[in-house]
Amino acid sequence: MSKAQVSLRNKDILGLETMSAAEMDLILDTAKEMKNIIDRDIKKAPTLRGKSIVNLFFENSTRTRTSFELAGKYLGADVVNISTSSSSVAKGESLRDTLLTVEAMGVDIVVMRHEAEGSAQFAASVVKPVIINAGDGAHEHPTQGLLDMFTIKQYKGKIAGLKVAIIGDILHSRVARSNIWGLLAMGAEVHIAGPQTLLPRGIEKTGIHVHNRVEEALDQADVVNVLRIQRERQQKGLFPSAREYARIFGVNAKRLALAKEDVLLMHPGPMNRGLEIAPDIAYGEQSAIQEQVKNGLAIRMALLFLVLMGGTHIEAAN
Ligand code: CP
């Protein structure tokens, strides 16, 4: 399918496993245009005036929720945030009833984060507004995967053919899954490494390279994406101690030196500095972590625009 034929209008964004490379290209190209708006003094375009977006977050978030809110506002939409603690979910209202209630208010998009894998798919089957998955358990976090690919393309000029090493807690990571599906579709060579207990069984069947030693994955890597140890999703005993983890699997300056000289260091955040990533490299010269946050805003603006308006180009802003 050529790029001109691709449309995401009214499409739920549930994950990258089912998204085509042409659709990803469309999002990345549109995000490039959106980044120009973020760089202006007056960050406003009237493109989504009259549209409404609800951020429905059942799990904590700083980056994703804030950037979806700003993305909607920069494009002129009305944006409302609902969190578990301040909504009727705290009184026992079910996910289904919450979704139906939001739908009854006539919203156009529901951006949802929930601890259950498959919850975004469920939401899409229950209500008509477009559902954008902002993270469903350990399953997928498609906008993070897209912003990571956008960042790689910004610095490296391409994705195909690059060696991308993903290090850490792969088992509990929706970021890892979305990155793996996205990067494979775009032609990257994906390597993962971490403790055996934090690597999903059978993951090598996807076509990625699996290592127990971080050093092997880092060797001559173009990009290193370090993942957070997700203590909140772990049972005890998956690795001996935080100190042991940092010593054997933590990415530090010495290990990073195994990668290519111009390696790009990434982390989706929030970071456990001193655990999975050494403090001195987190914001060092090779780090793109702050740029990832900025790019997250551009990607989310692009998605809101594409699912509501379609097309490949935004209208000139006032
Ligand atoms: N990367 C990410 O999803 O961060 P938040 O949990 O802060 O949204």
UniProtKB/TrEMBL annotation:
<feature type="binding site">
    <location>
        <position position="228"/>
    </location>
    <ligand>
        <name>L-aspartate</name>
    </ligand>
</feature>
<feature type="binding site">
    <location>
        <position position="144"/>
    </location>
    <ligand>
        <name>carbamoyl phosphate</name>
    </ligand>
</feature>
<feature type="binding site">
    <location>
        <position position="141"/>
    </location>
    <ligand>
        <name>carbamoyl phosphate</name>
    </ligand>
</feature>
<dbReference type="GO" id="GO:0006520">
    <property type="term" value="P:amino acid metabolic process"/>
</dbReference>
<dbReference type="InterPro" id="IPR002082">
    <property type="entry name" value="Asp_carbamoyltransf"/>
</dbReference>
<dbReference type="GO" id="GO:0044205">
    <property type="term" value="P:'de novo' UMP biosynthetic process"/>
</dbReference>
<comment type="pathway">
    <text>Pyrimidine metabolism; UMP biosynthesis via de novo pathway; (S)-dihydroorotate from bicarbonate: step 2/3.</text>
</comment>
<dbReference type="InterPro" id="IPR036901">
    <property type="entry name" value="Asp/Orn_carbamoylTrfase_sf"/>
</dbReference>
<feature type="domain" description="Aspartate/ornithine carbamoyltransferase carbamoyl-P binding">
    <location>
        <begin position="11"/>
        <end position="154"/>
    </location>
</feature>
<dbReference type="GO" id="GO:0016597">
    <property type="term" value="F:amino acid binding"/>
</dbReference>
<keyword id="KW-0665">Pyrimidine biosynthesis</keyword>
<comment type="similarity">
    <text>Belongs to the aspartate/ornithine carbamoyltransferase superfamily. ATCase family.</text>
</comment>
<feature type="binding site">
    <location>
        <position position="113"/>
    </location>
    <ligand>
        <name>carbamoyl phosphate</name>
    </ligand>
</feature>
<feature type="binding site">
    <location>
        <position position="269"/>
    </location>
    <ligand>
        <name>carbamoyl phosphate</name>
    </ligand>
</feature>
<comment type="function">
    <text>Catalyzes the condensation of carbamoyl phosphate and aspartate to form carbamoyl aspartate and inorganic phosphate, the committed step in the de novo pyrimidine nucleotide biosynthesis pathway.</text>
</comment>
<dbReference type="Pfam" id="PF00185">
    <property type="entry name" value="OTCace"/>
</dbReference>
<dbReference type="InterPro" id="IPR006132">
    <property type="entry name" value="Asp/Orn_carbamoyltranf_P-bd"/>
</dbReference>
<protein>
    <recommendedName>
        <fullName>Aspartate carbamoyltransferase</fullName>
        <ecNumber>2.1.3.2</ecNumber>
    </recommendedName>
</protein>
<feature type="binding site">
    <location>
        <position position="91"/>
    </location>
    <ligand>
        <name>L-aspartate</name>
    </ligand>
</feature>
<feature type="binding site">
    <location>
        <position position="63"/>
    </location>
    <ligand>
        <name>carbamoyl phosphate</name>
    </ligand>
</feature>
<feature type="binding site">
    <location>
        <position position="64"/>
    </location>
    <ligand>
        <name>carbamoyl phosphate</name>
    </ligand>
</feature>
<feature type="binding site">
    <location>
        <position position="174"/>
    </location>
    <ligand>
        <name>L-aspartate</name>
    </ligand>
</feature>
<dbReference type="InterPro" id="IPR006130">
    <property type="entry name" value="Asp/Orn_carbamoylTrfase"/>
</dbReference>
<comment type="subunit">
    <text>Heterododecamer (2C3:3R2) of six catalytic PyrB chains organized as two trimers (C3), and six regulatory PyrI chains organized as three dimers (R2).</text>
</comment>
<keyword id="KW-0808">Transferase</keyword>
<dbReference type="GO" id="GO:0006207">
    <property type="term" value="P:'de novo' pyrimidine nucleobase biosynthetic process"/>
</dbReference>
<feature type="domain" description="Aspartate/ornithine carbamoyltransferase Asp/Orn-binding">
    <location>
        <begin position="161"/>
        <end position="306"/>
    </location>
</feature>
<dbReference type="InterPro" id="IPR006131">
    <property type="entry name" value="Asp_carbamoyltransf_Asp/Orn-bd"/>
</dbReference>
<dbReference type="Pfam" id="PF02729">
    <property type="entry name" value="OTCace_N"/>
</dbReference>
<dbReference type="GO" id="GO:0005829">
    <property type="term" value="C:cytosol"/>
</dbReference>
<feature type="binding site">
    <location>
        <position position="270"/>
    </location>
    <ligand>
        <name>carbamoyl phosphate</name>
    </ligand>
</feature>
<dbReference type="GO" id="GO:0004070">
    <property type="term" value="F:aspartate carbamoyltransferase activity"/>
</dbReference>
